[in-house]
Design brief:
By secondary structure, the chain is mainly α. It has 6 helices and no strands.
């Protein structure tokens, strides 16, 4: 007859020099006789179930951690690639090719003014403002408007102002 205790647990018990109670007859498994033995066996089974759940959760979380570590590595490589691409990208042409209206839009963005606020201040529609932003992107050969603003500020074409718009 097989024991209700898994072989790895029996091996661990032998390693710790713990003895499992023997059955009354050879070849028969041990069964609790007293109420206390019955309660101890149930508690041990409940704790073993909790241990198994914890081990399963540990395996699951370890797998997730490995997956996330791989994703972090991918993101770091992508960041490095993008950074190199940005550094290798030729600088934009100087600012004199911008119209006065485009300079105003660029200066407003450098000052931190939002799209709607800039449109209201310049008394133009948001779609006209978006068109001007698109033209600025083309002229600076930038991928994003934020990048165009950074290039303009870096080149000294526009200076950010905390108190207002300064072209």
């Amino acid at each position: 007859m097989s024991s209700p205790i898994p072989p790895d647990v029996l091996a661990r018990m032998a390693e710790l020099q713990l003895e499992f109670p023997r059955g009354p007859l050879p070849g028969r498994p041990w069964r609790p006789v007293t109420h206390a033995e019955d309660m101890l066996l149930r508690q041990a089974q409940r704790l073993d179930g909790i241990r198994r759940q914890l081990l399963a959760e540990h395996r699951r979380l370890t797998g997730q951690a490995r997956s996330l570590a791989g994703r972090v590595t991918e993101l770091e490589q992508e960041t490095t690639r993008l950074h190199r691409a940005l550094l290798d990208k030729p600088l934009a042409e100087p600012m004199p090719h911008l119209s006065p209206e485009e300079r105003e839009v660029l200066a407003a963005a450098a000052a931190g003014e939002g799209l709607d606020a800039t449109a209201r201040r310049l008394q133009i529609s948001p779609s006209v403002l978006k068109y001007r932003r698109k033209r600025i992107l083309q002229r600076y050969r930038a991928d994003t408007f934020t990048q165009a603003v950074a290039l303009a500020v870096d080149a000294g074409d526009v200076r950010p102002s905390r108190t207002g718009v300064a072209p």
